[in-house]
Amino acid sequence: xxxxxxxxxxxxxxxxxxxxxxxxxxxxxxxxxxxxxxxxxxxxxxxxxxxxxxxxxxxxxxxxxxxxxxxxxxxxxxxxxxxxxxxxxxxxxxxxxxxxxxxxxxxxxxxxxxxxxxxxxxxxxxxxxxxxxxxxxxxxxxxxxxxxxxxxxxxxxxxxxxxxxxxxxxxxxxxxxxxxxxxxxxxxxxxxxxxxxxxxxxxxxxxxxxxxxxxxxxxxxxxxxxxxxxxxxxxxxxxxxxxxxxxxxxxxxxxx
Length: 256
Known about the structure:
Elements: E1 4-15, E2 18-24, E3 27-29, E4 33-37, H1 44-51, E5 59-64, E6 67-68, H2 74-79, E7 82-84, H3 97-109, H4 119-122, H5 126-135, H6 151-164, E8 169-173, H7 181-194, E9 199-203, H8 207-213, E10 216-221, E11 224-229, H9 231-235, H10 238-245
Parallel strand pairs: 4-9, 4-10, 7-8, 8-9
Antiparallel strand pairs: 1-2, 1-3, 1-5, 5-6, 10-11
Helix pairs in contact: 3-5, 3-6, 5-6, 6-7
């Protein structure tokens, strides 16, 4: 099996003459945490929307496990195992934490749209749901109502639900956005832990998070790839420092 799980070739998206993503060549290696970073307006979210097929590219190709998925629909791409966190990030606040994860597990059974399944029948999914909750540190709140969880633990629940859908490639869009320092640290370690044996592509603004867990980083600016490499490589690149801070002498470490 190829070490590349995801590849884009000349990926481009235009909106009424404005080029949001331009000739992006991205290579995500299997088993890596790959971060997509860049200043506001760099094209990161548009790139994610192209990869998950919520937008169609103007030109270019997207390959997953060597298969061209450029023209596939979002549900086809999801069935291949490309799962984006925001697609299942709407926690059902009146259901328990366990029930939320169980909904993600229903996709594997073919019951995903059959909400009238009896509670007794769905109990067969409980053991796996509790395993996933233990993996993200939520085993102790499995029977609590999801809406009562603090924000950081809701994000952990979203990751558990993502894992329930058995992703081969997890796309995490700003997983630590809006969090305090303690929650950021907790979710960063969670991502590191659940990434073992999996592949993660993440958009993240917090450079401390990126420096701690990313194996490889792609920096976008104005829709194009500005730099790529390890954190040490990109944080020392004067072009990257200037893109973030407006001066090549500024420290990237200060950009959150």
